[in-house]
């Protein structure tokens, strides 16, 4: 991209275009990320990324936008809310040990595809206003420091649980970026408002938030059920409870999420009854049914094997009963050694065959 010396579009105009596409807010950041880059280096050095080797790739491009996309001088950060139901209903499902709790961001369509398409449309509508310019769009799809950029763009602050929080909207939202060669006046960085609150640290089932603003992903239920492909460590299995894909606890307990608004995006609403499904029901899906009912969903990326692994742990934590034992026994001879191991653990918890 060749830098354009002056902005030819206002922030207000970009916001209006974004809101017409379903975004709730946008902010503009410069590309100075030295402090965030150092924090990432410290986090990686501590080994907190676990098996997420991709966090170490790409050298300095993650913290230096102009190296990832030459010519970048500004970043437009955009927010889209995804909360599909009330927090009270979420707590109700989480506290029902027979239900399969799936992180609410994953109940609908895959946000990667939806946001990327909308960001592309936003970038094109800007071009309709001002003419051709250089840009690339990203949604959790490249070495991009999304949360630090969003914080610099004024969309919120990074809370003690390491998620971005907005004073008026909580934290149940997705982020996306447009890297651009437009010189846009940056917004003021958001100030932090966690204060002395430690609710997110206190509630974390696996104590993955090892200190304020410091997450050890290796202990995080989202990491263990989504990113990790091996055997779930024994020390964490009971703590997983009925959480079979991700974890929302630290967001659910955050006081600022009393301001979180229900999503206005139909694509983020639950599909296939995943918001109310039981552990036994989902454990009964064969691979064909899993692939059919997770088509277009972020859940599909973990594959059927890890899906069964996670559900087996959930069933091991469920109230003891003949239906649970029968469901587990039906998978005791599964071709996957990973599934068989977790089923055996769950059966032992349930008192055997």
TrEMBL record:
Residues reported to bind cob(II)alamin: 62, 140, 164, 175, 222, 247-248
Top-level taxon of origin: Bacteria
Cellular compartment(s): Cytoplasm
Molecular functions per Gene Ontology: 4 iron, 4 sulfur cluster binding; cobalamin binding; epoxyqueuosine reductase activity; metal ion binding
Cofactor: [4Fe-4S] cluster; cob(II)alamin
Main location: cytoplasm
BP-aspect Gene Ontology terms: tRNA queuosine(34) biosynthetic process
Enzyme class: oxidoreductase
Note on cofactor: Binds 2 [4Fe-4S] clusters per monomer.
Cellular component GO terms held in the UniProt record: cytoplasm
UniProt-annotated binding residues for [4Fe-4S] cluster 1: 194, 197, 200, 254
UniProt pathway annotation: tRNA modification; tRNA-queuosine biosynthesis
UniProt domain 4Fe-4S ferredoxin-type: residue ranges: 184-214
Keyword RNA-binding included in the entry's annotation: no
Active site: 140 (proton donor)
Catalytic activity: epoxyqueuosine(34) in tRNA + AH2 = queuosine(34) in tRNA + A + H2O
Free-text function comment from the UniProt entry: Catalyzes the conversion of epoxyqueuosine (oQ) to queuosine (Q), which is a hypermodified base found in the wobble positions of tRNA(Asp), tRNA(Asn), tRNA(His) and tRNA(Tyr).
Assembly notes: Monomer.
Assigned protein family: Belongs to the QueG family.
Protein name per UniProt: Epoxyqueuosine reductase
């Amino acid at each position: 991209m060749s830098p354009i010396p002056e902005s030819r579009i206002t922030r207000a105009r970009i916001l209006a275009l974004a809101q017409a596409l379903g975004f709730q807010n946008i902010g503009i950041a410069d590309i100075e990320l030295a402090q965030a880059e150092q924090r990432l280096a410290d986090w990686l050095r501590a080994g907190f990324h676990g098996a997420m080797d991709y966090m170490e790739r790409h050298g300095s491009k993650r913290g230096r936008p102009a190296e990832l996309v030459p010519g970048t001088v500004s970043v437009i950060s955009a927010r889209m809310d995804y909360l599909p139901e009330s927090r009270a209903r979420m707590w109700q499902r989480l506290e029902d040990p027979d239900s399969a709790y799936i992180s609410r961001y994953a109940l609908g369509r895959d946000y990667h595809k939806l946001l990327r398409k909308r960001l592309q449309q936003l970038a094109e509508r800007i071009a309709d206003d001002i003419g051709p310019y250089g840009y690339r769009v990203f949604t959790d799809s490249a070495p991009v420091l999304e949360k630090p950029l969003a914080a610099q763009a004024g969309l919120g602050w990074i809370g003690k649980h390491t998620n971005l929080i907005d004073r008026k909207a909580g934290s149940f939202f997705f982020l996306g970026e447009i890297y651009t060669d437009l010189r846009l006046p940056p917004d003021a960085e958001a100030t932090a408002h966690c204060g002395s609150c430690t609710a997110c640290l206190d509630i974390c089932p696996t104590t993955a938030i090892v200190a304020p603003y410091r997450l050890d992903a290796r202990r995080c239920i989202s990491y263990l059920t989504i990113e990790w492909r091996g055997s779930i460590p024994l020390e964490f299995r009971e703590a997983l409870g009925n959480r079979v894909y991700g974890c929302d606890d630290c967001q659910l307990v955050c006081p600022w999420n009393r301001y979180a608004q229900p999503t206005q995006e139909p694509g983020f609403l639950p599909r296939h009854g995943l918001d109310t499904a039981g552990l036994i029901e989902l454990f009964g899906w064969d691979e064909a049914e899993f692939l059919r009912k997770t088509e277009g969903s972020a859940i599909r990326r973990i594959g059927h094997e890890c899906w069964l692994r996670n559900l087996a742990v959930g069933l091991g934590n469920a109230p003891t009963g003949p239906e649970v034992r029968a469901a587990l026994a039906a998978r005791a001879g599964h071709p996957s050694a990973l599934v068989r191991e977790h089923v055996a653990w769950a059966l032992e918890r349930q008192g055997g065959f």
